[in-house]
Amino acid sequence: MGVAYAYVKNQWITCISQHYSSFAGHSEREIMIASIELRQLKSSTTKQFLVTASSLAEFLDKSEQQELILLQRMQDMEAKEIYTASHVSLIFLFGPTGVGKTTLLSQVMKIIFEQNQGLMMQDLAYLPIAGVEARSPDSGSFDWKDYYKSVLIALSEPFADYKVRVSSSRVYASGSEQKTVKVKPNLGDLRADVEYVFRQRQLKIFLVDEAQRFAKIASGRKQQDQMDAIQSMASFTETRHGLFGTYELLQLRNLSGQLSRRSIDIHFPRYKSEHTEDIKDFQRVLKSFSIAMPLPEAPDLEKDWDYFYERSIGCVGIVKDWLTQSLRKALSESSNSLQDKYLQTYAPSVSKSVRMLTEAIEGENILLEGENQVEKLRSQLGLSTNYHHNFGLKDEAGDNH
């Protein structure tokens, strides 16, 4: 979003919105919903309100900042890791559904756009970062053709649809034997187009949300082929790929030694009730959500923090969606406050919360099992299994171990 093309004097001109960094990372549907909500909020104070790029960007920034308060403890470290880890081709960022991975992705894109805005204005072809959401396959297997098309669109390639749908003409033989044959673009052609645009755009980082969908393949060998294709593209184009997804992404990260060497893992966990600081952070964000609500009477969400935690299993993205739906209902009924009936109506059901918690715990246990492999690793290497690392700790003499 924020980029348009104009055909002027027989050439395509790239037009970039002055609010590009604010729109970046948001889908067209998100922009449309935000426009509707902004008009609704303004309708109570003005007879007519025109949604401008400036007001829409301001609204998007404000609404997202509330969620980022709770993500702050991890996003600084992880955002920095994503755009400074030059020694790797792939970055796997995983966590439970609704924990805030998509918000982190959007924030990383905003940071990098803001840092490179001057260069982007000097060179209109330059695009430092881009991203897509991997679509869920209809047939049961991941659709690479559909993926490549969405990548081309994300890179603001004006002829993406043409390249996917229209057959090309190729000439075979020569002289009287020469003939022209219509050939439909294959996956190799589409991949070549994507790699060409990556280089043309001088892309440094490409982020894929819901990347666990790459695993929608029948066999483990094909899963390795999926990751080999992404890693190969990342290396060939010198574009770091960040794969954001649920714990299902774990099955893709160590399919080969080469993949393990060229990738890093970032765990984005939910907030745990047994950790005092986590609960304090959770309560703080509820308070920030309360303050941000455009209602005459700000709700006291903190007093019911355990109810919000129960149904969201400690994932801030779930809380945000829940409160957004409740707020829309309150505004539609011109309510002065966020009454309990709205919260109860849109609260995740107990069965849904149990399912989300089960999946989260399963993913957390897989990670825990990986950490417990240290003893096995040392045994196979012929090292003592009683040895413990104490990196960064000092003994009484002041020497590092």
What is the fold named in CATH at topology level of the largest domain?
Answer: Rossmann fold
Gross geometry: globular
Number of strands: 9
Poorly predicted spans = 36-60, 66-77, 169-173, 391-401
CATH class of the largest domain: Alpha Beta
- The assigned CATH architecture of the largest domain is 3-Layer(aba) Sandwich
Whole-number mean pLDDT: 75
Strand line-up of the largest beta sheet: 4-7-8-3-9
**Main sheet makeup:** 5 strands, parallel
Order of helices and strands: EEHHHEHHEHHEEHEHEHEHHHHHH
The class by helix and strand makeup works out as: alpha/beta
CATH superfamily of the largest domain, by name, is P-loop containing nucleotide triphosphate hydrolases
State which percent range the strand residues make up: 5-15%
User: Radius of gyration over alpha carbons?
Assistant: 25 Å
